[in-house]
């Protein structure tokens, strides 16, 4: 088998011949390019490592904030549940409508429900104003 290019055993010799036949300016340029590319690679690896560290720190801070929010929400929900249970246990005659008013939102603009509850609201208000007689 013959080939036009250098074979493996002659590759080193042909490379040396090519380098010797190159002018000094081209050889110098090659070396400078190689050094410049190595510096750019090193800088990019360093910058990538810094970005990864920064991302890890930001992610840890985000998780800490989320945990803090969750704990605050849990605490406020527990307090609201305790207050609701305490209010539900205290049953005094004549305070039924006040308890209903606390549980219902009678402001039609503040409720963001998809269902129309205006009729139920009007029924509750009319029953509060004129209770049923037994």
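^ Assign residues to that structure.
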């Amino acid at each position: 088998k013959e080939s036009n290019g250098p074979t493996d055993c002659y590759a080193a010799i042909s490379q040396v011949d090519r380098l010797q036949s190159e002018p000094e300016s081209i050889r110098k340029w090659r070396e400078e390019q190689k050094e410049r590319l190595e510096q750019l690679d090193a800088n990019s690896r360093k910058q990538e490592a810094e970005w990864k560290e920064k991302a890890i720190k930001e992610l840890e801070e985000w998780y800490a904030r989320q945990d803090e929010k969750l704990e605050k929400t849990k605490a406020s929900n527990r307090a609201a549940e305790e207050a609701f249970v305490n209010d539900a246990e205290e049953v005094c005659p004549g305070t039924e409508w006040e308890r209903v008013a606390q549980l219902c939102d009678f402001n039609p603009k503040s409720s963001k429900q998809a269902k129309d509850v205006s009729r139920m609201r009007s029924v509750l208000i009319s029953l509060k104003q004129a209770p049923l007689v037994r």
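DSSP finds four helices and no strands in the chain.
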